[in-house]
């Protein structure tokens, strides 16, 4: 019989209840000869609790209020070797997908967009060409208005 289908006996459940109060999940797993996932499942199912003293001595990765992380004040992670030579320098974009101002592309809805700026959020960098054409002929778009195509053809400017 494999470990996955092994049922918990009453004795094992009682032993786990006692062990869980003061032992780690890995210690319980070794003593009972079960996987840690099986231990966690049974503890959750039965609602076993730990002793307050165990919580004080157990180590974890959670920070307490006011506790400072070990890496406070350190600059980013360094992989070592020559990795620093291949990093992007400040102010240099990813040249593989950086388009010049004036570049045009279709969005997922088939609306033609034109890049109008190198900085700002995406909706500030790219503007629909239909809005740009409208503003060239009629001035600023009134607040609350949406520019659409009369004939429904998104390529008819």
Key traits:
157 residues; mainly alpha; three-stranded antiparallel beta sheet; 6 helices; 33% helix; 6% strand
Please, could you describe this protein's structure?
This protein has 157 residues and is mainly alpha-helical. Helices cover 33% and strands 6% of the residues. It contains six helices and three strands. It has a three-stranded antiparallel sheet. The N and C termini lie far apart (73 Å).
- Looking at the structure, what is the overall shape? elongated
Q: What is the share of helical residues?
A: 25-40%
E-strand count:
3
Rg computed from alpha carbons, rounded to a whole number of angstroms: 31 Å
Order of SSEs: HHHHEEHEH
Q: Termini, distance in Å?
A: 73 Å
* Sheet with most strands: 3 strands, antiparallel
Report strand order across the widest sheet. Answer: 1-2-3
Overall pLDDT: 83
Number of helical stretches of at least 4 residues: 6
Q: What fraction strand? A: 5-15%
Unreliably modeled segments: none
Structural class: mainly alpha
């Amino acid at each position: 019989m494999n470990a996955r289908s092994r049922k918990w006996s009453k004795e094992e459940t009682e032993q786990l209840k006692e062990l869980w109060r003061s032992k780690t999940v890995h210690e319980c797993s070794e003593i009972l000869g079960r996987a840690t996932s099986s231990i966690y499942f049974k503890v959750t199912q039965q609602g076993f609790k730990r002793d307050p003293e165990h919580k004080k001595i157990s180590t974890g990765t959670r920070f307490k209020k006011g506790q400072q992380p070990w890496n406070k004040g350190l600059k980013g992670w360094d992989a070592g070797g020559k990795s620093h030579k291949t990093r992007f320098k400040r102010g240099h974009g990813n040249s593989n997908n950086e388009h010049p101002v004036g570049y045009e592309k279709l969005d997922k809805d088939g609306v033609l967009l034109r890049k109008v700026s190198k900085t700002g959020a995406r909706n500030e960098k790219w503007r629909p060409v239909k809005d740009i054409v409208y503003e060239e002929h009629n001035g600023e778009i009134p607040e609350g208005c949406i520019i659409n195509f009369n004939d429904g053809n998104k390529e008819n400017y």
